[in-house]
Design goal:
Blueprint: E1 13-18, E2 21-26, H1 31-37, E3 61-64, E4 67-70, E5 81-83, H2 87-103, H3 118-125, E6 142-143, E7 149-152, H4 161-170, E8 175-178, E9 185-188, H5 205-209, E10 215-217, H6 231-239
Parallel strand pairs: 1-5
Antiparallel strand pairs: 1-2, 3-4, 3-5, 6-7, 7-10, 8-9
Length: 242
């Protein structure tokens, strides 16, 4: 077992074991950060470099001594043993993604983000070939009141990226979450139409970080909406916010 006392390890580093391999990571790193620094892939959805962690999607589940934990918010520790590829973890991740598809109306063929969608890519990554739970088929609204953008709640996965980028990077605090459970949805200001949200600066950062076709530019046809979520980490670095 890794002990954190291996030769060459500094006081600002730790050694842990991921998938049977001893790896080094900075003190204070999360399991996700430690894995990423060592080239170990853990699927994510709500995570985005440059934003604080929320731990809401539960796609990044891993096992630590038999306990299933979200890698993005669990601090790594010296001597910790992490498993990222057990059958239990794979099944849980696949189930989480199936539930995301079943909860809303993700019709990829007619989506503006088809082919450029993180949820679509994630389904392939976790080998989700079908959905084994009943679809909810909710009748959710589309808000196109903003002059440049629109939000289709049918395609939202409630990852909260729009909330975090608007608050942490733009500083506008326009986005929030309204209601609870299956009725939860993203709202602007005090649940007014987006076009009436006085705090919105129209910067478009929420569009770029949205992992699906939920928040998009107006005028895009199927498969035409490409986004640049990496813009956030670049802005944070340039502004010295990290």
């Amino acid at each position: 077992m890794a002990t954190g006392e291996e030769e060459g390890v500094t006081v600002n580093e730790m050694v842990l074991r991921i998938d049977g391999r001893d790896v080094r990571a900075p003190a204070g790193a999360t399991i996700l950060e430690a894995a990423k620094l060592n080239g170990i892939l853990i699927p994510t959805l709500c995570h985005l470099d440059g934003l604080c962690e929320a731990g809401v999607c539960r796609v990044c589940l891993v096992e630590v001594k038999g306990e299933v934990v979200p890698a993005c918010v669990r601090p790594a520790a010296a001597g910790m043993e992490v498993e990222t590829k057990t059958e239990r973890v794979k099944e849980l991740r696949r189930t989480v993604v199936e539930l995301l598809f079943a909860e809303r109306n993700h019709i990829c063929a007619v989506c503006v983000s088809n082919g450029h969608c993180e949820l679509q890519d994630l389904a392939n990554e976790v080998e989700m070939h079908s959905v084994r739970v009943p679809y909810v088929y909710p009748r959710l609204p589309l808000d196109a009141t903003h002059p440049r953008f629109l939000i289709d709640h049918n395609r939202c996965v409630l990852c909260g990226r729009c909330v975090r980028v608007c608050a942490e990077v733009e500083g506008a605090h326009t986005w929030g979450t309204g209601e609870r459970g299956v009725r939860a949805r993203m709202i602007t200001d005090l649940a007014v139409d987006w076009g009436k949200a006085e705090s919105c600066t129209g910067c478009g950062k929420c569009v770029q970080v949205c992992p699906t076709g939920a928040i998009v530019l107006k005028g895009k046809a199927a498969a035409e909406m490409e986004k640049d979520p990496g813009l956030v980490a670049e802005l944070v670095e340039r502004r010295g916010l990290a």
